[in-house]
Each structure stands twice: as C-alpha cells, then as structure tokens.
Amino acid sequence: MIRLSEAHLQAVRDHGISEFPRECCGVLIGDLDDGTKTVTEVRPLPNTFTPSDEFERSAGPITSQNAGEPVGQERRYMVSPDTMFQLMLEERRTKRKVLGFYHSHPDHPARPSEYDRVWAMPWYSYIIVSILQGAPDALTCWVLSDDASEFESEPMEVYCNEN
Amino acid sequence: MPRVLIPTSLQQFAGGADELEASGSTIGAVLSDLMERHPNLKKQLYSDRGELRHFVNIYKGSEDSRSLLGMDTPISEDEELSIVPSIAGGVAAPTRPKIVLPDPISVIDDARAGAVEFSNEEILRYSRHLMLPEVNLEGQKKLRAARVLCIGAGGLGSPLAMYLAAAGIGTIGIVDFDVVDYTNLQRQIIHDTNDVGRLKMESARDTIADINPFVEVIGFEEMFTSQNAMSIAKDFDIIIDGTDNFPTRYLTNDVCVLLGKPNVYGSIFRFEGQASVFWAEHGPCYRCLYPEPPPPGLVPSCAEGGVLGVLPGIVGCLQANEAIKLILGVGNPLIGRLLLFNALKMQFRELRLQKDPSCPICGPNRTIHELIDYEEFCGIRGEETLPQEVEEGEEITVSQLKARMDRGEKLNVIDVREPHEFAIARIPGTKLIPLNQVEERSGEFDKNEEIILHCRSGKRSADALNRLKAKGFRKLKNLVGGITAWSDEIDPKVPKY
After folding, report:
1. Which CATH number applies to B395-489?
2. What residues of chain B have any CB closer than 8 angstroms to a CB in chain A?
3. Which of B116, B194, B334, B480 has its CA 20 to 30 A from that of B110?
4. How far apart are the C-alpha atoms of B35 and B19, rounded to whole Å?
5. What is the ipTM of this complex?
6. Under the phi-then-psi rule, with left for phi > 0, alpha for psi from -120 to 50, and beta for the rest, what region is B27?
7. Catalytic member of B302, B359, B362, B378
8. Are A77 and B88 within 8 A, CB to CB?
9. CATH number at B110-377
C-alpha cells in the first residue's frame, strides 16, 4: 500500500508529457510508518540511460546480431548509480526514505515489461504512467513479488492535496 | 570492521538493519563475509551462478568501485561501503524490424566462368576451395575469370591483394604511384624490408607472383585521378577502395557509380575500422553515407594520427572476403550495411544504410554526371601546395642553429610537437610546448626575445610562428625541415619517424 496525493500523480503525468517521446523517471520520497509508505515528494530525476548501459551493465545485446538503431531513451530509463547514491545519503540525513520510483511508457501500456522486472529491486514501489501520443493515459503502481518472479499490482491510496 | 550501508529496499533481507558490519581487506572479501552472515541478502545481490548481479553497484566512500579496482579495491577498518542499486526499466523490448540481408549477387556470369580451364597444379592449389560446396569448381572458375582493381597497395591493399592472389583471382589491378618507406613496413605486409625505396606497385606484383604465379597483375604506376580513373577501372569487375584520403575515396565512389560497379570500401583510423560494399545499383553509395567530406585537417591521416598495424590487416581481409563473395555470388554481401570495428574494445557493430534519395550521384535527380575535381571538392586544393607561409628572414636552417648552439648562445628553442613525439626524438636544449598550447602559454616568453620554433618537418612550427606573431611576438624563427632535417644534416643518431 502506498499513499500519495493527486498532485503527486499529476506531477508524474506532467513529467511524462514533458519528456515524451522519451521515458521520464523520478523518485518517490516519503515516510515509512508500520509498513505503509506515504509519499511526501515526487522528484524528477534525469534519465541517464545510454545504449552502452545496456551493453555494459547487462552483458547486453551483441549489436552485430541486432543491426539497426540501438534502444534509446524512448524505451529505456536509468537512474544513475551516482544519483542513487546521493539519494541514499539523503535518506540517512533526513530520515525520509526512498519509497520507490516512477517512469513513463511512451506509446505503450502502463504495464511493467519484462525488462522492468529484471531490473527491479524488491520492496520499492514502481509507478508507471502511459503517455500515448503525448497525452497521459493509465497510471499504475507495482511492487515485485517476494520471489521476484513477477510484479504485483500495489494499491494506491490517493489523498487530498491539502493533507 | 568496515561498515556496509544497505538500501531501504534490501533492509528486510538484513534483519531490518540499514547498516551492517563485515570484515575483510578488499571489497570482495567484505562482501563475501557479509553474504555469509546474511544469506538472504545474498539471494538478492548475487545471481545463481554466484556473480554480483549487474545492477548492483558497490561504492567505497563516495566512489563507484568500478572506477577503483572493483572487487580487489582495498578497504580499511574504518571505511564505509554502500550497496547502490541501479534503477532502470522501460517498455517491452522493441520488436526489431526483421533484418533482411541482401541476396547473393555475382559479378561474373556463367559464360565467363565456363571458359576457364584449370591445370592439375591449379586444381591441387585450390583443393580446399573446391571441397567447399559454396565455392567448388564452378566458383573457383569465377574467381579465375574475375578482374579486381585495388586502389592503393598500402595498409588495406596489402592483405587484401595477398588474399585475393592466394584465392586465385585471375586478374588483379593495382594502382599505386608511391614508393615503399620504412614507416610502411609496420602494417603494409605485401612489402618487406628489402623493398624499401622500390615502387609499391612493383613490390606488390613480386609478392603476388610469389604467392600465386597464376595471377595476372596489371600495375598502374600513377595516381588515381579524374583523368585516368574511368579508363583504368572500366575493365574490372570490382573496385576495392584501399585509399587513405578523401579525394581518392570520393573519386573511387563516383567512378564505381558511373560505371555501375561495386565499390568494396574499407577505412581505418587509429584503432577503428569501417567496411561496406557500395553498389548504387543495389544499395547506397559512399555519398549517401557521407554527402560531404569532413573539413580538411579534421580527420588526421595515419601519418598524423597513427594506426595500429594489425588493424588494416583485419579490415583489408574483410574487404577481400566481400570481394570474393561478390564474385562467387554466395552469402549476403555487405551492401546497405556499414560494419564498424573497434580493435581495442574488440567489437563489431553494424549500421544499416539507406540509399539517399537526394544523393547527388546515385539519386533520381542526380547533379553529378561525370567526374569532378576531388581535391577542390574536399577543400584541400592548395593546402598541400601552400603550406603556412613564413616571411623571409623568419627562417633558420639546422646548420645555422647548430652553429649558434656551438657558439654557446643562449637560445629559446620551442618544440611544438606532441609529447609522444618528443619521447621518440628531440633536439637537445629545446622546450616542449605542443602546438595547441602555444598561444595560451605564450606568456612564458618575452615578446622581444628571439624564439626559434621547430616541429617534425617545419609545417606545424610555421603555424605556431604565425600564431605567435599575431600575439605580438617580433623575433620568431622557424627551423626549416624540422627535426627530420636535424637528423639528416646534423645528428643522424636522432631517429626519424
């Protein structure tokens, strides 16, 4: 269960629109109380994905077998390890936690891909917003199952903005 | 003990702790100790094969261990490691367009191949080809009937001409007006030490005759130019581009387009190579890929930039391979594909090339109908004939310099070459300031003092002289002939390169 405001969801959609046709990404920061995640900030992060990330970090595709355009930011996002490290330092400093991440699927449904699953960390919430031809569509939230074999839908409790 | 910071997402596997301790003197040792203490964590961080999963990064302090010594990075008792996940994802893997490789094409028709007869000696020589169903006797006859023109007998031309000869290509044309030089031997393996000073074309002809006396070599001891290119190329089936300069590369392309012949292209630069087959009747041409040449001087030649000797061997062999396929009519030719090779990374990449509808020579509305002036097109007309001008009185010869040194004069001699050149050879008592730093470091000198500039041949130092003159320096002198002249006339112990 993750609690967040309509304004947070709108921020995710707006970021997805502004980055379209590239994938946007960002972090969900907030409080953890007895297992309930409450988002207090949605913060956009730079998408640092480059085709060589796929190559270097995942023993990725051999391009000569996959002639053609390499996959770019239209289909991939990455939060760089350095950014992630800074977020972890911030967690210790502020006691607010990284609760999860969001990203957009330009012209694709708001369902996690196999690629999302392979790269996912346990426990974090993953919000996906579908941006179809530049306009926001479905917005969903997911968390990795205990055995990491699949994503399970995570309920969102959307509270009013003044809360 | 070193501490290890655990990200929130993994704390549930670490008994809820955000920080753990483990012992060890390297990152790898600390991690294995940690995994022994917390087996649940191990399942999250390591693959079934026991390797750290690719999206797990380990930081020591604030540095990614990948930029240190990885798992071997030493760590002391009071240092801190962080387990930092890479967060990534994206939409479903794209359904890549199915790659349709071009169909085999043969430049030799059956009638020409049918006219070939082999002696028993040749049958034995080509035995390993004849046993390949893709070649067999019929294919070997096509090779024998084929006429292949190599533009250049240098780095690329060497291996490809040798393999074409060995493969039994009937006629190999070689265009080269150059003479074998010591600096060629590091990569141009068709020439050997005894050939230094000989015409490359003749040296190549002899090597080919040694490899396979059944090959006829037609030598053209001339530059490949707009004037002679069409008449040289017209009787060949395939043209192979083994050139090292842009004017000849565009010329070779245009000749092939105008004659409707395939251009087996290869190029090399330092550690990187490219290869493709440009054949306008079946795909894009070189101009579809590169409509304009780079500005002169932007891409250094092998002489300026250096090249790994084995690289032209690899790329030249790729070209020979493609030429042989085009003759046999087997496999998928490298048409519409640009192969990129990186010798350091040992990576082959492939780009798909499209025919450019606005191509000035192979497009429907082409504007080029005959060969043009390629030196002018590449903007280098004049550059070779008009080096940086140095005024009279701004030159000093090596013997004048030596005489002044011998008299014990205190001289400011600046060497404007690169540090790796300085390491090879230097004139004693000189100061190294590479050309691109000359202006910013000009403050190190008095504008009224005499400054003598030198480089390898005198060209770059003339450039430096003019740059310093623009900064207000008055007493500048350029050493004529550079360190090469110094080696020739003053001190032969200084190596030339």
Report:
1. 3.40.250.10
2. 5, 7-10, 12-13, 18, 44, 54-55, 57, 59, 62, 64, 82, 84-94, 96-97, 99, 337, 339, 347-352
3. B334
4. 14
5. 0.80
6. alpha
7. B302
8. yes
9. 3.40.50.720
